[in-house]
Specification:
Largest sheet: 4 strands, mixed
Strand content: 25-35%
Strand order of the largest sheet: 3-2-1-5
Oligomer: single chain
């Protein structure tokens, strides 16, 4: 039994093949480019990222001819990826490091004390 694990972080993307007892059989890593079209923005082009992930997966599969996977796990730091009806991305993915909503956050914090805000939002 083998597993394929994909981890998309802020500095790199990894694809790892793991044997059933947890032994790492192989791993590939590629860079992730975070775009900052304006100060305080942090975005990733989901199409470019998907191509990079596919390349890493193919590279790992090619290392192990005939391999099958019992499961595939994915971990990613992406926020939302908005798609059209055909499954194409509509805009860059805004990631957790994006700070473009600072003015809105200040307004919310003025309108609602922290205790009340956290009680409502969890």
């Amino acid at each position: 039994m083998n597993f394929l694990v994909i981890d998309v972080g802020t500095s790199s993307c990894r694809a790892t093949v793991i044997a059933g007892k947890g032994e790492i059989l192989s791993q590939s890593r590629g860079p992730v480019r975070i775009d900052q079209p304006q100060p305080s923005f942090a975005e990733i082009d989901p199409d470019r990222l998907w191509l990079a992930v596919q390349k890493l997966i193919r590279y790992e599969i090619d290392k192990h001819p005939g391999i099958t996977f019992a499961a595939i796990g994915v971990s990613a730091m992406l926020g939302y990826v908005f798609l059209d009806k055909a499954g194409r991305s509509l805009m860059p993915a805004v990631i957790y490091a994006d700070n473009r909503a600072k003015a809105e956050i200040k307004k919310i914090r003025r309108l609602s004390p922290d205790e009340k805000f956290f009680a409502i939002s969890g």
